[in-house]
């Protein structure tokens, strides 16, 4: 088993709590993504797994071993950094085989493993070059080959694609997913890019200020965010959130804000009545809003962003709150400054307690 587990991990730097009571497990052969904004604690958590940082509290397990106090070299993990960390004076072949030399692997086996990793990452023709002669994408492949050649229990990747341009980033993340499947590897992958997280991870663990907010499959996180932070962080564009109030009763519960009237579906209304929140926030994805002459949300177009296959309509509600509507590219766009009415798909509404920021689940 190559599982990686953090049990009640806390990390303090003087008065700053970087990771706060984090319990999380990457299952055997799983690609688990740690996702969050800068400073949320995701890289610190990865460094704790690697043995580059010692936790203030808690336990780290890799496979069936407690490695909390083990040195980094004894943890049987390979780390891929954002900066590649290649030795500039060595050829690609020497860079890739370096961890095997450090472990005194016999030369014949070293050559075989380097050749295998080079074939897997399509860098065979680069083995005689030095890092300065490589592009960013090629350097990243070399860094990955150096990690793969060790055949560790787990791979730890800290924003490895951040230095690549957009096109190469898309290509390389697809290659990483393919490699993970072929090698049946356990991978803990850190990123601030939610598109990477959604497209690569078997599960996503979302952190904010050192605290785990939600961990689940990408689609589950998108469809049922646990709280307002997750709702606003996941999605491009992110979920619209509108502050308002509730009126009516269990048989006809209505969310209202200035220029907004939305009847809640029965299941959500029942759950909301049980939760009895003092204040609420309505959440609705941009694709679940549409221009509708009979709609119950009145707004004004303030910006139209055309993306070819679709456009994003940024509208301002009567009370000044802004929301985004995703409109298919084949529909007629409105005019800048035009007053419009919108309707929302009732089955795709989300409601959050404004005080606790937690989701009200139907």
Outline the structure in words.
By secondary structure, the chain is of the alpha+beta class. The chain folds into 2 domains: 4-232, P-loop containing nucleotide triphosphate hydrolases (Rossmann fold, 3-Layer(aba) Sandwich); 240-353, Beta Barrel (OB fold (Dihydrolipoamide Acetyltransferase, E2P)). It has helices spanning 42-50, 92-102, 107-120, 136-148, 166-183, 194-200, 218-223, 228-233, 266-275, and strands at residues 4-13, 16-26, 31-35, 57-62, 65-66, 77-80, 154-158, 186-191, 203-208, 211-216, 240-249, 252-257, 260-263, 280-284, 289-291, 297-306, 310-317, 322-328, 339-344, 350-353. The strands form 4 sheets. Strands 6-7-8-3-9-10 form a 6-stranded mixed sheet, with helices on both faces. Strands 13-12-11-14-20 form a 5-stranded antiparallel sheet. A 5-stranded antiparallel sheet has the order 15-19-16-17-18, with no helix packed on it. The longest helix is centred in the middle third of the chain and has 18 residues, at 166-183.
CATH-defined architecture of the largest domain: 3-Layer(aba) Sandwich
- Beta content comes to 25-35%
Q: Give the spatial strand order of the biggest sheet.
A: 6-7-8-3-9-10
The tally of strands reads 20
The CATH class of the largest domain is Alpha Beta
* Contiguous uncertain segments of 5+ residues: none
Quote the distance from N terminus to C terminus: 37 Å
Structure classification: alpha+beta
Instruction: Name the average pLDDT.
Output: 93
- Kindly report the CATH topology of the largest domain: Rossmann fold
Principal-axes shape call: elongated
- Any idea what the radius of gyration is? 25 Å
CATH superfamily of the largest domain: P-loop containing nucleotide triphosphate hydrolases
Main β sheet profile: 6 strands, mixed
Fraction in helix? 25-40%
